[in-house]
Amino acid sequence: MRFSLSRLALCVSLLHQGSAAHVAVSADKDAVIENRGLVGGLVGGVLGTVLGLGDVLKQLDQTRDPRAILDILNGVRPRATPTSLPEVQETLQGIYGSATPTNLYKNIALQLGSGLGPLIDDNRDLIIAVLGYGEGEDSVNNPNNPTNVSRTVYPTAAAGDAPYSLPEAQLRAAIRIPAAFTFGAKPPVLLVPGTWSYGGSVYGPNLRKLLTDSPHADPVWLNVPGAMAGDAQVNSEYIAYAINYLSAICSNSSNSSSDEVKVSVVSFSQGGLDTQWAFTFWPSTRAVVSNFLPVSPDFHGTVLVNVLCLSADSDVGLGPCDPAAIQQEYTSHYIATLRAAGGDSAYVPTTTLYSGLLDEIVQPQHGTGASAYLLDARGVGVVNVEAQVACPPASPGAGFYGHAGMLYHPLTYALVVDALSNGGPADLGRIDIEEVCSHYAAPGLGLEDVVATAALIPMAAGVLLSSLDKRLVEPPTMPYAK
């Protein structure tokens, strides 16, 4: 039986009354996080009972087999209907409230049951939704013709660039250029997705929708084959090539008023980490990027990989997982190589945006120790924005936002527009913080957009659980980075 999501939100609200976890960040943020862990566990149990998912949660507690988990999740149907943005936020807060989740797939089951996943009706399950990835706006085979390329971008754009391991046609086909693209009349913006996702689905219901008609942005997005689950070093090749290719096809075109058009890059999750790798080992990209705006990035990796990577034969530690996931371990060679090469500091004007309350995928994600936090050793200009610190206490924008939630956060959009409009990193001083943070989502986004964005987490889980390239050891470091 379905019912309004307000019933679930009421459960959450009652448990949070009087709790520091329900209000904005206090002076003792660690205490808030600890409190949230307790309250989140209680709320998760209540939601499981209300939704009638007790048996499902028990089954998920008893298996580490990815295929079995996917089968269980495929059987979950929405038992509630979201009716407002506050209800959505309250419910997500209850589901993902624990600071240290031990079974992310139980949380995903609750999200699916709450009507906040891709299970939009009783005839569509998670596996069917995942099979649609890589097609349409998520296509990895886009017929881009290299017309009006003003300079050489392959096999190398400049001396010092790393070599590509992929043919140019494959790199170019991953770039999705919409029919309305102006080829330099408006500043091009490259949208880079995260792990287990494609750019079309990631940005369609949020930033791409908002930026499409902006005079300061002309969105183009990447659909990396394999949904960014393969070797992160190879994923970075797609990003490096796309940056130089977009700049080249826009520069000197009849629509461009500049001899050299620069590209802005907006990224999500792993997309930020791999863009930083591209800046590090393809120096030519730095000269043609005007702004880098990573959302929920994991520049230092995450300590939660072991929550994601499971195996029927492994009960302890990290099970076999997709290459990019292992490379995003906090102690991976990929992360260590990037930091040793100077990738812990920005190469271009950068505004990094993240949630300290509470990213369920990337941890740590608070203060200067946040995985999203970048240094500015080169003096290019860096602004690190933790949403709950920047927004006024008790405002909606200072509340709970998860990993994908930052894509619709009102402050994210405001800062992206500020950076694209003014050049250089965004400036909080140019924004009406109280007005911006008084909204649950960026103006222009509705309930359907927020639910579609929240659904990116179950969709990513479906890709992870169904992918076949599982390893125990990360791919070897490319020779150019050794």
TrEMBL record:
UniProt signal peptide: 1-20
Matching PANTHER family: LIPASE B
Superkingdom in the source lineage: Eukaryota
Keywords: Signal
Protein name: Uncharacterized protein
Listed InterPro entries: AB_hydrolase_fold, Stereospecific_Lipase
TM segment ranges: none
